[in-house]
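Obj.: predict assembly geometry.
Materials: sequence records (below).
Method: joint structure prediction, all chains together.
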Amino acid sequence: MCQLLGMNCNTPTDIVFSFEAFRRRGGITDVHADGFGIGFFEGKGIRLLHDDQPCAHSPIADLVRQYQIKSTNVIAHIRKATQGQISLANTHPFVRELWGEYWLFAHNGHLSDIQAAADDVYHAVGSTDSERAFCYMLNQLRRRFSKKPNKNQLFDAISELATELRERGLFNFMLSNGECLLTHAGSLLFYIIRKAPFGEAHLLDDDLSVDFAAVTTPKDKVAVIATLPLTANEVWQQLAVNELVMFADGDIVCRNTPVMPRYLSKEEGLAIARAYGSAAE
Amino acid sequence: MCQLLGMNCNTPTDIVFSFEAFRRRGGITDVHADGFGIGFFEGKGIRLLHDDQPCAHSPIADLVRQYQIKSTNVIAHIRKATQGQISLANTHPFVRELWGEYWLFAHNGHLSDIQAAADDVYHAVGSTDSERAFCYMLNQLRRRFSKKPNKNQLFDAISELATELRERGLFNFMLSNGECLLTHAGSLLFYIIRKAPFGEAHLLDDDLSVDFAAVTTPKDKVAVIATLPLTANEVWQQLAVNELVMFADGDIVCRNTPVMPRYLSKEEGLAIARAYGSAAE
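Observations (raw structure tokens):
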């Protein structure tokens, strides 16, 4: 199974602390050693860093730490390839432009039978089901809205698309246009919203702590979302299976928690991932 | 004036030698110290590296040397900002997807009055005339061809678009879909095609030589295109003003040299750039 990491904040924030834990799962504390990708919104622009080397040992991942890129929206993905060529064209996150904004997408899972239509605007460049799903969603959004809708309309449309697509497999995804970050759980996703009073956090995967009070202002709000919790001494909230959550300015602005929410244990989530493993990206 | 650098080859080749000269113009041997961008095709995928630090001193530019990324198509741009915000969304090269391929574009010059149409597929994210020109070209190509045309049809269409757009200002550009690289001279552009028997080349901007015979095979063909020649002991060919050239597999496959070709001296080219300087990106 691959792993996802996302961040949404009300002020540009560096993701170094979370990314340091996450990247160790790319070859040190876990087996996701087949490359990684991370996309940062910087204003309306996107900085994308990819590598086919294990994230834990990648000089490009070192650059993330060195540059301490500050962003309000970040999506990262580390990969355990079980099939499919490892190539740059198949590396998450993927980017397209819609309504004069860049959109960033990463997926953990597997979806089958996503067909392209003759009049589609967006086409996959690589060979992953993930990029096809992303293009499918953007094609549908463009058909529904010739101009950018408001947040509630956008959330409802993406919720319908997620409901449709998850019928075809396992669909954990993160999607952002630089304003909001949408996260959908097909199996495992956890989040935490850090805000004042800030405390100290200790990474699960590394002997590293940070005192957020020392590096934040009282107004800061930072939501971090990940396949599995990254810190040991904080309470992470779990997304229910099939739940879609929209974050903006470091807080939840829309969510569609199922009437009968179901939460998977880590073991159950990993077992599902393994069941899809023979076909997972 | 900004500067452009492009490479098109028949076998994946690293651009380190040319880029080392080019980047020194970004803050050491010349004044283009307001950031840079470089895009590499790796298979069908694109790796984009940008920095708003002067290219000559950028850790991200160091990464280009460290990684020795091999590519068949590369476009790089160093920037001397004369107006306009320096932001990631305004940094060349720009990328969009068309017909299931990524397209990479960089521009040196200035174009006015590029209007968007209501039914456009591609919209600029940033505020540059360059990105608007790129989107205009892609919108027009999509209207003309629902599927990817052959190289001659593509060349003719881009030639028409270049003729139309250059009426609006100064239009030196490079455009690539990972198969071919199109270069259009509004003022200054030079190229060289290196092939067997390979010799030694010595950089103009640096005390650096390379013996290409030692790092190539007899079948290799490498076309390098730049605003101004990069080496001292090789003969660079100049593009005529308004000439469009398509390179593929390291060689020229199409060109439309004007009937009365006009070649600018470096001084004339720089004077034109200065005349547009108050509005140039």
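Conclusions so far: The longest strand of chain B covers residues 3-14.
To do: check interface contacts against the pulldown list.
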